[in-house]
UniProtKB/TrEMBL annotation, chain A:
Pfam families named in the record: CcmF_C, Cytochrom_C_asm
Domain Cytochrome c-type biogenesis protein CcmF C-terminal as annotated: residue spans: 336-616
Subcellular location(s) of the protein: Cell inner membrane
The name this protein goes by in its record: Cytochrome C biogenesis protein CcmF
From TrEMBL, chain B:
Domain CcmH/CycL/Ccl2/NrfF N-terminal stretches: 30-133
Transmembrane segments: 103-121, 147-166
Annotated source species: Micromonospora rosaria
Pfam families in the record: CcmH
Protein name: Cytochrome c-type biogenesis protein
């Protein structure tokens, strides 16, 4: 019953989305009224809402006749994780994907219906149609199951351990799909005639929305990985992680090339806007088709060929539409010591990092048919390529305050103090400890950025920050520097030990000691849970830590949930690896990770900077450009969160 | 004048101190361990995308031990790496060698850097209005278009290459191509050769989990016997004999283990062994044992 209703929702979307494409095409070509087209876009959104709501209802009502619920639901699953199970497996997450995509479509449809917007809406509607078709035909979660099982296995146990599961995937999807708007606008610009010249102004707030949510999503994902997977890290250069990083890199570049109206960088803007969404599609293909083995890729599926075909089509359409263009208008050259130069260098570097991550991710796919062996590209490759490039990018983030003056001497004078701070940091840290060249330069670059931002005129006071036109950039670059310090410090100064302890024995790492008190086993509802209790003491303080080892027989999977004592200076990270059958001893891993908190703080500051930039952009437009029709500026309506 | 000299002096001092710090820390303290350095370049065959340094699987532990042993014997990191490649194939490398498709790892980023750099340089140059020199215009346009189409064709070719590769992969392989069981077995033989029977037994157990094979179980029993775990050996041999009651090797290990655990029944088992396989290479030794 619920299953039929859900399928009906998908089919309704499959009808509404192409209808919207046709109606928007009519608006674009014949200047027809936009109201029916808008209604069709809203119809597609309603269809996606219906499908999601029905699947949620089935999950919460334990309707195991629905295939997705039979595979991912369970009577033992707590309410919160029952709600999040919607996106815990592929077919359901595709519904969330559709919901977000149709939501962006309906929001963007609200603005002034000029030719540019109509053309862009055609593109968005075509993309929506494709994903509705994918969900209906290739990954329909609503198919009936016979006979109806009495219970289900519940979602993947790894996804039932952390509250971040509730927000990480939706944020990530909001980031991915937000890029469809700049992409559609870049494609539409050459088709829309005179309207098309304004595409970047329209696209930038959407790129900001996408960037902000994607940043938050990626950092939350790293936090989840740190808090649940129990290996002590947060980033493994895994294909799924790389797939989220790729569009982030190009969108970061786009946010910079589009500064100041993007004048003189027209081509860069359109290529980067297209690249963002194309990389989202490519990433979707890589992670959803089972083509790349990954820790958190969804398993094999029939979606591969369909997604690949769509990626190809999108690449072709982009090439044909944005390829040959009128030569840009005349303009003066860019002075060497100026912000545009820094923006260009930054873009070149970010594009190179993206190329590194892209080839590292797809190489196993390319190499296997050629050599017959399954090559793998480990973190070592990225440490040698992406990390040095990232350090240079970080250095560039310290330049904007200095580049506010125009002459070379002035720029150098303003760079003197940050430069001295950077050199002093490198000298002090390098002589006191031996963190390695990469981390050391990262510390130096972070000192350069932070000093530059703090000594810039007008910034250190809150009033100065409030007045500053570039306050979002200042905040964002500070967040990046904090993140870099956290990453470099936790990667170099972390200390780990692993031992099998009998009850009463102690493991020591530096000044932190953990004594095993007891090992308890329990098996509620068939899920075996082993909990070790340890007293962790350091510097006169002590507290109780209880890392958990959980075994889920329904999925034959063990989950090691670490006990983390997070501090401002360092985290004490305890993992239970194994226990003896008699419960008298346990293998324990004790890690002391310094400054990990800075990574999350940097991510939060970056997200806040994105929100600030968004509100500044929207407010500036409301003030500066009252719309001729007297209505609010279209962008403001769509972009306000 | 004095101020400028002071600034210059400070700058030189800072530069020197920073260079000293950088030089001193070029070899990070954490990676000074040669075993970890080699292990970082090798992949754990039983895991997905983890290097030997990070992995906690028993195979990785044993492979790290092999690295430590070979390092102790004075082998260079390159020799150890070659030894692993010769034994387990190139899949064991954490990063493909820089030839064949592996070369792409360096060529593609280099091309991206050069291409984007060239485009940036062109953006930086001043552009005169196109109509100032009408004679130039067609040539300029002609020269720009092939570059664009070439780049576009390259992009499409990349996607097609991915498509072809993805097609070959169907149905998708989730398990890594390097068979963890085979690696575990090879490691176990190596460990036995080095007379580290405890570790070898652990590897055989690992292999048995995925491939419950009597041959492997017998090797496990032998290894346990040599590791002085007679009870374990007896149990393993017993399992073999459950499937094949006449297995000569099973009877042999069982008998030898029973000599330690239950001496009263040992001679009966060994006699049965002699009856089943009078020509076994170990038979004369057993006859000697029983005779004495």
């Amino acid at each position: 019953m619920l299953g039929d209703l859900g399928t009906a929702g998908l089919v309704a979307g499959l009808l509404a989305a192409p209808l919207a494409a046709l109606l928007w095409l009519r608006v674009a070509l014949a200047g027809a009224p936009a109201r029916p087209a808008r209604l069709a876009s809203v119809g597609a959104l309603l269809a996606a809402v219906t499908a999601c709501a029905v699947l949620e209802a089935a999950l919460l009502g334990h309707d195991f006749s629905v295939r997705f619920v039979a595979e991912n639901g369970g009577r033992h699953v707590p309410l919160y994780y029952a709600v999040t199970s919607l996106w815990s497996a592929m077919d359901g997450s595709l519904l969330l994907w559709l919901l977000v995509l149709a939501g962006y479509g309906a929001l963007f449809a609200r603005g002034r219906p000029d030719r540019l917007r109509a053309c862009a809406m055609v593109v968005i509607s075509v993309v929506t149609t494709f994903f509705f078709a994918l969900s209906t035909f290739a990954a329909n979660p609503f198919r009936a199951v016979h006979p109806v099982p009495p219970d289900g296995p519940g979602p993947n146990p790894l996804l039932q351990e952390h509250a971040a599961m509730g927000v990480h995937p939706p944020l990530l999807y909001a980031g991915y799909l937000g890029m469809v708007v700049p992409f559609a606008l870049a494609l539409a610009a050459p088709l829309a005639g005179p309207d098309g010249r304004d595409w970047l102004r329209l696209a930038r707030p959407w790129a900001l929305v996408a960037w902000t949510t994607l940043t938050a999503g990626i950092v939350l994902g790293a936090w989840w990985s740190y808090a649940v997977l129990g290996w002590g890290g947060y980033w493994a250069w895994d294909p799924v992680e790389n797939a989220s990083l790729l569009p982030w890199l190009t969108t970061t570049a786009l946010l910079h090339t589009s500064l100041g109206g993007g004048r003189g960088r027209e081509r860069w803007n359109s290529v980067l806007a297209c690249a963002g969404f194309l990389l989202v599609l490519l990433g979707t293909f890589l992670t959803r088709s089972g083509a790349v083995a990954s820790v958190h890729a969804f398993t094999e599926s029939p979606l591969g060929p369909l997604l690949l075909g769509f990626v190809l089509l999108a690449v072709l359409a982009t090439t044909v539409l944005t390829g040959p263009r009128q030569p840009p208008p005349a303009r003066p050259g860019v002075p060497l010591w100026s912000r545009p130069t820094a923006v260009l260098v930054n873009t070149v570097l970010l594009v190179t990092v993206a190329a590194v991550v892209l080839i590292g991710t797809v190489l196993p796919l390319i190499a296997e048919p050629v050599t017959g062996t399954r090559a793998s590209v480990g973190p070592g490759y990225y440490h040698r390529t992406a990390v040095p490039l990232a350090v240079v990018v970080l250095l560039l983030a310290g330049l904007p305050p200095a580049l506010r003056v125009r002459d070379r001497a002035g720029v150098l004078r303003r760079l003197a103090l940050p430069g001295a701070a950077a050199l002093a940091t490198v000298a002090a840290v390098g002589l006191l400890s031996r963190p390695g060249a990469a981390a050391l330069t990262a510390f130096g670059a972070a000192a350069f950025v932070l000093t530059g931002l703090l000594t810039a005129p007008g910034v250190p006071t809150t009033a100065g920050l409030r007045r500053s036109r570039r306050r979002a950039a200042t905040l964002g670059h500070a967040g990046l520097a904090l993140l870099a310090v956290g990453v470099a410090a936790s990667a170099t100064y972390a200390r780990v030990d692993e031992r099998t302890l009998r009850v009463g024995e102690t493991i020591r790492v530096g000044d932190v000691a953990a004594r095993l008190e007891s090992v308890q086993r329990a098996a509620p509802g068939g899920r075996m849970t082993v909990r070790a209790r340890l007293v962790v003491s350091s510097g006169g303080h002590s507290h109780l830590a209880a890392p958990v080892l959980r075994y889920d027989p329904a999925r034959d999977m063990a989950v090691t949930v670490p006990a983390i004592d997070a501090g401002t200076r360092r985290d004490v990270y305890l993992t239970l690896l194994a226990v003896a059958a008699d419960g008298g001893s346990a293998s324990v891993r004790l890690a002391v990770n310094p400054l990990v908190g800075l990574i999350w703080a940097g991510g939060a500051v970056g997200t806040a900077a994105g929100l600030l930039a968004l509100s500044d952009t929207v407010r500036a437009r409301r003030v500066r450009r009252p719309h001729p029709t007297g209505r609010r500026v279209p962008v403001a309506a769509g972009a306000s969160p | 004048m004095i101020r400028r000299a002071g600034v210059a002096l400070t700058l030189v001092a800072l530069l020197a101190a920073a260079a000293a710090g950088l030089f001193r820390s070029a070899v990070p303290a954490g990676r000074a361990d040669p075993v970890a350095a080699v292990a970082a370049g090798l992949r754990c065959p039983a895991c997905q995308g983890e290097s030997l340094v990070d992995s906690r699987s028993p195979i990785a532990v044993s492979m790290r031990q092999v690295i430590a042993d070979q390092t102790a014997q004075g082998r260079s990191p390159d020799e150890i790496r070659r030894w692993f490649v010769a034994r387990y194939g190139e899949e064991v490398l954490a990063q493909p060698p820089a030839r064949g498709p592996g070369l792409l790892l360096w060529v593609v980023p280099a091309l991206a850097l050069l291409g984007a750099g060239a485009a940036a340089a062109r953006t930086m140059r001043a552009r005169r209005p196109a109509r100032v020199s009408p004679a130039d215009r067609p040539t300029r346009r002609r020269s720009r278009r092939p570059v664009w189409w070439l780049a576009a064709a390259g992009l499409v070719a990349l996607v097609v290459a991915v498509a072809v590769a993805a097609d070959r992969l169907a149905p998708p392989t989730v398990t890594p191509r390097t068979d963890p069981t085979a690696v575990a077995l090879k490691l176990a033989y190596d460990l036995e050769g080095q007379q580290r029977y405890d570790a070898a037994a652990q590897m055989y157990r690992e292999a048995l989990r995925d491939r419950p094979d009597d041959g492997v179980r017998l090797r496990l029993a032998f290894a346990l016997l040599r590791a002085a775990d007679a009870a374990g050996a007896e149990q393993a041999a017993g399992q073999v004999l459950d499937h094949a009651p006449e297995s000569p090797d099973g009877l042999l290990v069982l008998g030898l283990a029973q000599r330690i655990t239950r001496p009263t029944v040992a001679s009966a088992t060994l006699r049965r062994f002699l009856a089943v396989a009078p020509a076994h290479p170990a038979a004369p030794e057993i006859r000697r044992l029983l005779g004495s």
